[in-house]
Structures are given as C-alpha cells and as structure tokens.
Amino acid sequence: MIAFLLRRIGQGLLVMVAVGMMAFALFRFVGDPVNQLVGPDASEEDRERIRVEIGLKDPVALQFSRYIWRAAHLDFGFSYQFKQPVTKLIAERLPATMELAFVAVSIALVLGVLLGVYTGLHRDSFLSNVFLTVSLIGISLPTFLIGILLIFLFAVQLKVMPSFGRGQVVDLGFWTTGFLTASGRSALVLPAITLGLFQMTLTMRLVRSEMLEIMRLDFIKFARARGLKNRAIHFGHAFKNTLIPVITVTGLQFGTTIAFAIITETVFQWPGMGNLFLRAVQTVDIPIMACYLMMIGFLFVLINFIVDILYFVVDPRLRHVTKVAL
C-alpha cells in the first residue's frame, strides 16, 4: 500500500506542476500585468522599469521556477484590484465557500443515498416514480434558475428565508463560521439546496442503478437461499458493494462543488471564493485567477488521494491485489 500511495503522491505532484504551468501562463497570455499597476498616462520608460522590477524581463524558466517556489510557500503576490496579498483575500473567503460546499455535498450524499437505495429496492412503487421524476427536474434545470425559483418562493412569497448574504458569522480567529448563529444557518439553506440538488440527483441515480445491478448477482441469490433477512441482504451485502462508485462520485462532487460554486454564490451574493474569482475575471486580476486555479487543482489532487485511501478501507479486494502486485 505504501508503494501505491507514493505513486499517487508522485502523480499528484506532476498534476500540480501542470496546473502551475497553466496558472503561470495567465501572466503571459491574459493581458499585461503592467497595465494593472500603472495608470494609462504612464510613460514607456516607467513601464519598462516596472517590468524589470517584477521580473517580467527574466528568462521564462526562471520566472516559472520562481512562481512555483512562491506558490509552494503560499505566496501568490498582490491583487491588482484590492492591493492586498492574494493569500489573505482567499483565506478571508475560503470558510464561506467550504461551509457552503460541505452542507451542499452532505445534503446530496445523505438524501441521494437514501433515495437511491429506496428506488433501487422498490423500483415499481409510486414513490419511486415520484422521486425519479423529481430527479429529472433537478438534472434538467440550470443552477441559476433553481436558485432564482427558491428565492422567489421562500424569500419573496413566503418570507421565511433570507435571499442573499451569509448572515451573522462568528469569528473563531482562524475561521469564520455561520453554523453558530441562527441567521447564519438560515442563510445556508437555500444556496446549499441550489448547489447540492444536481449532485443529489446524480448520487440517487447512481446508487439506484448499482443496487439494481447488484440485486441480480448470484451472491445475493445465495444469501437469500441461506435464509438471511432482507435487511441483512440489502444493507449488509448489496449496499456495501455500491460504496466504491459512491465514494468516487462524492469525492469528485466535493471538488466540483467548490470549483463551480461561482453561479450559486453570484445568485445569492454569497461572500465566497467563487464571487471573488468572478470579480477577478471581470477586472483581469491575474494573481487571484492564478491562485484560484492552483487551489482548485490542489483540492482535486487531495480529494482523489483521500478517495484512493478509502478504497482500501471499503474494498478488501484492492488490498489483496496490491499485495500480489508487490
């Protein structure tokens, strides 16, 4: 297993180098950084002097190695727009996005697994058909439309939920959280449902298809022949064998939820990283864009690494295969 994990770590480092190359390319091919640092009336001599000062005249290999070294030390420079360290700006907005993504994925995982197991075991029931119909709506409607509809219903018509913002938060020093206040928890509901609805329907359909497939296998028939109860067959044998694809999809969903929370954060004016990234794109704030790209790449690498470890915990066959390979 150690050799397998070392291989995964090496692959993750290669991925991060490739992501770093793409982030570094933003500084060379997406606008001119000097234009963001000086006024339109600056002379060409001043522009050249700034290019020398910030290292734009150095060889490309030296610039790239310097960028990777600084990124490894969490130094992504200063924002052109906010005139503050990019790391500080990201750190201020990271808790909001992580809490939103965590709640959205939790809703998607819990409801998706429960509904998937139910529809897989009761495929012809009325409730199963209702859940499948609702899942089609969840997959078909775009995220921004779902958010707008939820705001119109629960915030405008019923007036039971806030329509924007994060609510009151508590500063713990290293983290700001809305879980500890009533307004913070209330503000999480609508954006979390909006962000997690598509993932929930995807998880439900995946679990359902896996349950239908596994219930037809021979070892399930053998378990019935042994006289095992339905609960032991359904949850001790069938459901356990659906965990591998569920773990894979859940891990990818968490990374995707963080990376593509931009639309939801924009609709609900959620003060997270997605909203910051969108403003950076509008103003061509390259340091923020590059830092966001590197951070999302690292999160996907980390999540895939954790998923690989969970494979060994859930499926003993992988441990056996790895031992044989070694």
From TrEMBL:
Entries under InterPro entries matching the protein: BPD_transp_1_N, MetI-like, MetI-like_sf
GO annotation, biological process: transmembrane transport
Keywords: Cell membrane, Membrane, Transmembrane, Transmembrane helix, Transport
Superkingdom as given in the UniProt entry: Bacteria
Transmembrane segments annotated in the record for this chain: 12-30, 100-118, 130-156, 243-263, 286-314
A cellular-component GO term for this protein: plasma membrane
Cellular compartment(s): Cell membrane
Domain ABC transmembrane type-1: 94-311
Family per record: Belongs to the binding-protein-dependent transport system permease family.
PANTHER family xrefs: ABC TRANSPORTER PERMEASE PROTEIN, DIPEPTIDE TRANSPORT SYSTEM PERMEASE PROTEIN DPPB-RELATED
Protein name: ABC transporter permease
Taxonomic lineage from the root: Bacteria, Pseudomonadati, Pseudomonadota, Alphaproteobacteria, Hyphomicrobiales
